[in-house]
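Homework help board

Subject: predicted structure for assignment chain

Our instructor gave us this sequence and asked us to write out the predicted structure in token form, then describe one feature. I got the tokens but I'm not sure how to describe them. Can anyone check?
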Amino acid sequence: MHPKPVYIAVVGIGGVGSAFLSQLAVLQKRYPHIAVVLISRSNQTLSALSFSEPLSLDNWSTQLAASKQPGLTPADIHNYLTTSNATGGKCILVDNTSNQSLAEAYPSFLSDGISIVTPNKKAFSSSLALWEEIQSSSFPVEPHGGFIYHESTVGAGLPVISTLKDLVATGDRVRRIEGVFSGTLSFLFNNFAPAHDVSKGGKWSEEVKKAKALGYTEPDPRDDLNGLDVARKLVILARLARLKVEDTSAFPVESLIPKDLESCQSGAQYLEKLPDYDGEMAELRQTAQQEGKVVRYTGSIDVVKGELKVGLQKLEQGHPVLGLLGSDNIVGFYTERYGERPLIVQGAGAGADITAMGVTADVIKVLERIH
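My token output:
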């Protein structure tokens, strides 16, 4: 007996989306019943004429570039997946965007049995009301709801979320979660204040420029340095640990952007003025060194007290975070079972291929649960 087709709609085809489609083409050889019926970006869409004639992944980029069909709203996508599917097969929406409107539409997809796989943090870190609606619309709370997986919202392809879910589901008591949750900030501080010899660190502004040149930062580095990306990840983990965190405004988030540079009109202007503040960062590094410590940008969740914190921290030599290299992430789970020797998840936490791997792995999980 052949499995029923599973129809996949892919929204967002930037770096992660394109890498995902490449991995999905390989996955189709193992799961030939996968049928891609929609590939969409903000201004263009490629859709199958019918679900019985799915899209080919051999030349999707050429076909999309030639498409005259505009981008779709969340309602358009929902309508397409619910009205065009005459076969009764299951659907998976793969959202590779950071679109808030699409994130807010997740409950409507899930309640109609459409599963969702996504690295979009906004769905899980904005209002607590949206988080709760997503949970109540998805399986198993809603018996006929779709499945939802979002491993890549924290740590790219690292098994951070699945590890935490397993700890909670098996009855372990998570007491504390802490680590480095940003590949960008990991790279910056590993070079600005090397753990093995702080004196070999460069000037802060030069390290930021280097990180940007290597593609580790957003086009405007302030989007990485304001701490909000780390804060969103902490909100997600805290909620999975069963804390009711309203949003990122509910706890302190330390920004690394000097107040006077917050109003810069562009990333280029910010980088031009940043050297004027190298002294402040150098003093911070030196103060930590005089205490026998090394400064890093970390996030922490005290589950027992219900407290979250994002910002600079001075760490003793030998701390697991100081063993990081390059742009690696590290997350330590301190639990009743593991005690003060945490369960640690560590590795590359950024990059299109790695993030896409997490998305693809989640698609496999949905495929296995559907059948």
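Reply (TA_rk): Your tokens look well-formed. For the description, you could write something like this. The chain has a mean pLDDT of 95. That's the kind of observation they're looking for.
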